[in-house]
Amino acid sequence: MVGKRKRDASVVSRATASEDEGIPQQPPVDASYQDVFRKFFEAQFQPLEEGTGGQVAGGDESEEESEDEGPEQSGSEPEWGGVSDEDDEVNEVEVVEHRDAETQALMDKQARKAFMTSKPPSSVEQTTVKRLKKDKDAEGEDNATDADNLKNDLALQRLLKESHLLDSASELAPTGKNRIKALDLRMQELGAKASLYKQNMPSSHRRGIKAKAGMKEDKRRREARENGIILEKPAPKSSSTSTKRRERGVGGPSIGKFAGGALNLSKRDVAAIQGPRRSTGGRGRGGRGRGRGGRGRGSR
Amino acid sequence: MASTSQPPLRFTSHKNLVWRLVFSTLTGRTVQISQIRPSSPTNPGLAPHEISFLRLLDSITNGSQMEISYTGTILVYKPGLITGSASGTGANSGGVIRHELPAGCARGVSYFLIPLCLLAPFSKAPLKVLFTGPGVITSATPNGDMSVDSVRTAILPLYNQFGIFNNIELRILKRSNPGPNGRGGGGEVQLVFGHQLRLPKTLHLMNPGRITKVRGVAYAVGVSASNNARMIQTARGVLNPLVPDTYIFSDVSSAPFVPTSEKTNPSGKKKIGLGFGLSLVAESSTGCLFSADVASPPAGGEAPEDIGKRCAYQLLETISKGGCVAPAGVATMLGLMTMGSEDVGRIQVGREVIADESTIQLARDLTKFGAPGWGLRDASGENENGDVIISVVGRGIGNVGRKVA
Prior knowledge:
A: 300 residues; two-stranded antiparallel sheet; 2 strands; B: Dihydrodipicolinate Reductase, domain 2; globular
């Protein structure tokens, strides 16, 4: 009996062609039930023709029921009369072929060219698709992208070369002093003879500039100290050129100045050759000229 | 090389012969392959296309030795260095190695191209090979070789994922379908593989994505161009409702004209390799490629509509196998991953793809060549197809020719 009941339910759901849960599971025994179903069906689909559609759906069910289950369902039989069993048994598989080939839009030549090259198609097609969308004025656009690429390339090159001038990443275009510096770099790259910063001016001017800069810095520091502001440590004083050892060429004299075919020794050079006097000899090392000679050791 | 002290690896049967030779060359291990068609009464031993592949290996490597037994059933291959087409190594003035395929060759030229492409990134110099001769079949063949178009559109882009993309070209100079009885053709194909590198990138490909577009090439050699239109029409009919972005290009060429080797008419020429075919490639949103290939049988008698429909269905079947790589590209992908740096690469493949006989054979062969075993696990996420993720540890050999001493 349980099996039968299950079967009934499935038949009902098929007949009404709706999988809704709200359908009552009992077999329809009354005309009012049928009306309910019919209304439900019509609400879901389209209105049924009187006497054909609704009857068909019902008849299928009732016949099956009457055959399988006997007299208990016979009450509903007269109202359901329709499709014969053959239709149910001819379980034909309907083959549906999707054909939608009419719209072979002609791909433009560019896409064809892009695909039918010898190169494996990869990102190439991306650009062609883009081009498809607005293919008008393709030439002008091409030029524009070229120019754009060139511009970006230049910007990148500049950024790579001058990034050390930029103290913050926020501002990519240098301003003020940095702009001048960047300009200087670019000019030198293009073949400028001398840097912008290497100006030929009287030494008194230069000294004046240096003195002024030093004064300004001193003033700033003094004021900061007086106001209790802690400033950055002063930059380590670059050893001035006088104290630095001069770069000499290979094969030149190690001391003195060779000019006009003669080695000129200044007083300092002479003093360096002679080394410190005996009285101080014990303390310091020998002069440059004597260097690591045996005398130094001997003096111990 | 270091391999001299090691005993040769022993394999049997002619199956997977090409990939064994490729991995032997890449790893530098000597191989001995025995029992090559021992029981065939008519054609025992190596087939013409296999001999031709050995010749090709010989011409792109330096110092490789191969010994073939009297019957051809045993092959010992001692690999050399992959030099590519460097000047003075058999290449002509343009640096192009000319490889002639014999007339009896029944395999498509993709049989040579796909393994050759796997060797090329590890070559010392750029590799340029011109396939020519009376045995070059550019179309798909009944043996299951894919067409040259599919190699270009479905196999070569795979290298992009390993950081190999520069100066790769596959020029189809002359098309040809299989000749009578499926043997011979008259095509001409040039491969340029100009991107050599030390180690391919480690690959992590675990998102198959969704198919976004289908491209294809319909080719007709020596027959009417209307065949192309008919194939395209039917294939589009199947594919258009599924992927609106479907475009199939048509390529019509005349039949190759090759000299006949008849004694009565030594200067005679004949048309060979007539037919038509279709190559379809589907690309997913993540760049995974699936291809299908069907060509008219050498005996003829099949309508272009049937070819188009079969090809479209074959494409759908390939896609339905799932994963990030089609069966045709498995050997390439896994080979490159194995040759990569000593890092774990992962790739998602369909269950049917990995259960394929050739994939399993590939795994066994690679293990024999000393590659660590693959790690397999089910793909995570919504994995209704039961895809498998293969983890491959690279061997870190890479390009021996590019090793900095």
